[in-house]
Amino acid sequence: MAEPLPGTPTAPRVGDSSDDAKVLDHVMTYHSTRCCASPIYAFLFGPPDASLVRFTGATRGRFTARITLSDRHMNSAGGIHGSVSATIVDWAGGLAIAAWDLRAATGVSVDINISYLSTARIGDEVEIEGKVERVGSNLAFTEVRIWKINGEGARGALVASGRHTKFVKR
């Protein structure tokens, strides 16, 4: 197999724990450098030095993270705001693409949709899973789910489910 060109990211192999650690490190670095440079992401997820996000795992094209919801995430009725859930889908879709092949840029949004299935309140912990469905030469398709964490620390009710398509041509 030919060596990749210098500067070309190489996709990690699925199931290799050392590669999974590289993917997780890349996702965390991408979040703290690229994502936190965005004022809306910094507001919702905290600045890099005081991140509200706790990354819990990553493999090729997939990552999980948890966040405890605060008043900045709520609507006037006390539930997670729909725009916050939509922003999470946007954020997590990009991070899943970054996890796909350790790329340094994840493109621009073409389409995003979300279904709101239940709610979460201040103090609730939610788990976010972003995963790639397909990365082509021009478009990447991702799926993001947000679960409320139950009293045993496991996934409970599905709060929201979304899909995010991005233009990724290099």
Automatic annotation (TrEMBL):
Keywords: Hydrolase
Classification via InterPro entries: ACOT13 (IPR039298), HotDog_dom_sf (IPR029069), PAAI_dom (IPR003736), Thioestr_dom (IPR006683)
Domain called Thioesterase: residue spans: 78-151
Entry superkingdom: Eukaryota
GO molecular function term, any single one: fatty acyl-CoA hydrolase activity
Pfam families hit by this protein: 4HBT (PF03061)
CDD domains linked: PaaI_thioesterase
Family listed: Belongs to the thioesterase PaaI family.
Protein name per the record: Thioesterase family protein
Species this protein is from: Podospora aff. communis PSN243
Organism ancestry: Eukaryota, Fungi, Dikarya, Ascomycota, Pezizomycotina
